Amino acid sequence: MFRGQFGPANQIHDFHPPITDAGLYWVVPVPAGGLTWGADGKSATLAVRDVPVIDQPTWPAIDSRATPARMTFRMTFEATDKPVTYEDKLKRFRVQGFLATCRMEAEVSVPSTGFTFRTEPIDKCPPAAFAVIGEEVNGKYYDELASK
Questions:
Q1: Which H/E stretch holds residue 146?
Q2: What residues have CB less than 8 Å from 101, skipping those under 6 apart?
Q3: Beta-carbon neighbour count of residue 45 at 10 Å?
Q4: Is 143 exposed, middle or buried, given 0-12, 13-18 or 19+ CB atoms closer than 10 A?
Q5: 148 residues of the chain, pLDDT tens digit each
Q6: Residue 113 to residue 13: CA distance in whole angstroms
Q7: Residues paired with residue 87 on neighbouring β-strands, in sequence order
């Protein structure tokens, strides 16, 4: 989030999960029932409540202060009929699926400061510029599938 014009000097909040002990970034557990699929397999909803995150406005600066925060969000995906494949054999990575529309609503809060922000409701938010519903494979799983 920024105050005024977009740019590092005007950034006032940056909400994200902390880096895990395994070194993963932007990963949170999804509770049972948090991901639901439409009966046709062409739509999905990802919803999580009260996820522990941090607010780190000067990220990625080494000395960036991290303040405990919470995030609740809901994302909806609707597949189009346009199939896509993105593959990099050298990096052992492939995504296959369908282009999709994605919308999201979210609320973030920093309890220690009393700050809260809520987006517009999901039905009022414009779709993301890019989304895919499909399957992704990488690393050893890429190799295993390629040998079959």
A1: helix 139-146
A2: 77, 78, 80, 127, 128, 131
A3: 14
A4: exposed
A5: 778 887 777 777 889 998 888 888 888 889 999 999 999 989 999 999 999 999 998 877 778 889 999 999 999 999 999 999 999 999 999 999 999 999 999 999 999 999 999 999 999 999 999 999 999 999 888 877 766 6
A6: 12
A7: 94
